[in-house]
Specification:
elongated; 12 helices; 2 domains; binds guanosine-5'-triphosphate; Beta-Lactamase; five-stranded antiparallel sheet; 442 residues; alpha/beta; binds magnesium ion; Rossmann fold
């Protein structure tokens, strides 16, 4: 019996559970009723993992494993990638095109799962393009290039078995004996009741293509998919965000003609028009790295000759090496609107919130304590100074936590910062995830 494992991952609501459910013969789900703000979007969320099996023939079965999407269940990502799916044959990363900042998701998940993605074939499936058709595939290609990755990108609908099967076929075709993916896909597009009838007529013993499989000459021995050498590491440290682009954003191309189908052997993409042109496997070098500089400071500080900086309080010891922060010319500029303050107030444990401009001016606040508000404005104003002083790269969060008092967290974006005062028992990690979800879905 040959068993093939595939890992499906991606952000909340990108369709991991749906995609596994739609093609599996047998299913184990761990979805629970949503207790946080995700409820605005959908009623259930995966808390442990999804598991489904798809029988290709009497001797071959695909095992599909889906991660939870919420970073608060992140421990499961490690449990899965170090354990049950460490020997998987491929990874499907689903990205929801209807979230506000899909590039953030792409970057986050390709980074979180880079260990497994770098040793197995990875495909990106972009869902909900029927709801939101931008970013286009071309933009995803630019993002992939920017991240130094060569994963193929497809628009899919996670509710359509034929779309999901196309990805599965693409990952497994070089490894497995089964070859009649076309019939399997056709069956997936059928009305479920007809599939039942067909299975019953077949005695539920084999799928329609099984007979043909037996007559086929033995296929070449499965071989590993060759992965090109991973591109040089360009990503910054966890707390360091990339610098806002100076380059013009990639304009969506006119979709005048359908993109050509990849010239590679199987699989056959069901949606030729949406499939991107196959790029050469070599990845262009990542953008040149430069020290972190804020957008408005860039003109004053020529990149060619950055001023060497010495940390304050230089101590004797090993020579100081300035950290190299990656530039991220395609990062999306997050815009926080006034309404976010009231939305954040609805989160458990939050006592006050304030939106402050990058100059420290209050835009909106529920914090009545003048001194505290002044302090948050001050923090927002000095965040860029922290970057300078500590040479940390981009500061995206400032967290002040004491064992007894409230927790103050400042989320720093390009033009605004959001200050949140929360009960000391509130998990900063969960709070952060809930706020980032608000930004994604707001
Ligand atoms: N319109 C549209 N809806 C889609 C598409 N793909 C998936 N969906 C819907 O989006 C939702 C996805 O929900 P889930 O499958 O639970 O998402 P998930 O990735 O498992 O989410 P978590 O387990 O919470 O991380 C479902 O309601 C699907 O029906 C698509 O391409 N278009
Ligand atoms: Mg799920």
């Amino acid at each position: 019996m040959n068993n093939y494992k595939i890992l499906v991952t991606g952000p909340v609501g990108s369709g991991k559970t749906t995609s596994i459910r739609v093609i599996s013969d047998k299913l184990l789900e761990t979805d629970e009723k949503v207790s946080d703000r995700t409820a605005v979007r959908k009623p259930m969320t995966t808390v442990a993992m999804d598991y489904g099996t798809l029988r290709l023939s009497d001797n071959e079965t695909v095992h599909l494993y889906g991660t939870p999407g919420q970073p608060r269940f992140k421990f499961m990502w490690d449990v899965m990638t170090r354990g049950i799916v460490k020997d998987c044959l491929g990874v499907v990363l689903l990205i929801d095109n209807a979230r506000n900042y899909p590039y953030r998701d792409l970057k986050f998940f390709t980074d979180e799962f880079k260990h497994i993605m770098s040793r197995t074939k990875t495909l990106v499936g972009v869902t909900r393009s029927d709801v939101q058709d931008k970013p286009t595939i071309d933009i995803y290609h630019s993002w992939m290039q920017n991240l130094g990755l060569d994963y193929e990108v497809f628009y899919i609908d996670a509710r359509k078995g034929s779309d999901v099967l196309m990805l599965v076929e693409n990952l497994l075709a070089p490894h497995c004996f089964f070859s009649d993916w076309r019939s399997l896909r056709a069956m997936q597009s059928m009305d479920p009741s007809l599939i039942e009838d067909q299975r019953a007529a077949m005695g539920d013993e084999a799928l329609p293509e099984a007979a043909e499989v037996e007559e086929m000459p033995p296929p070449p021995a499965p071989k590993a998919v060759e992965k090109p050498a991973p591109a040089a590491e360009t990503r910054e440290e966890e707390t360091v965000e990339a610098v806002e682009p100076e380059v013009a954003p990639v304009e969506p191309k006119q979709e005048a003609a359908p993109a050509p189908v990849a010239p590679e052997p199987p699989p056959k993409a069901p949606k030729a028009a949406k499939k991107p042109p196959q790029e050469a496997t070599s990845v262009p070098p990542p953008p040149e790295q430069a020290p972190p500089v804020r957008k408005e400071q860039k003109e004053q500080r020529p990149e060619a000759a950055p001023k060497p900086r010495t940390p304050p309080n230089t101590r004797p010891g090993p020579a100081y090496r300035a950290p190299v922060a990656a530039r991220d010319p395609l990062s999306e500029k997050v815009v926080m609107k006034e309404e976010i303050v009231q939305e954040v107030m609805g989160l458990r444990g939050v006592k006050g919130a304030a939106l402050v401009s990058s100059l420290g001016d209050i835009v909106e606040t529920t914090i009545e304590d003048g001194q505290l508000m002044e302090f948050i404005s001050f923090l927002a104003g000095v965040a860029p100074t922290f970057e300078e002083a500590a040479n940390l790269g981009r500061v995206t969060e400032v967290i002040l936590k004491s064992p007894k008092d409230d927790v103050i967290t400042l989320y720093v974006e390009d033009e605004q910062s959001l200050g949140v005062v929360a009960d000391n028992r509130t998990s900063v990690r969960i709070l952060k995830q809930q706020i980032y979800d608000m930004l994604q879905w707001g």
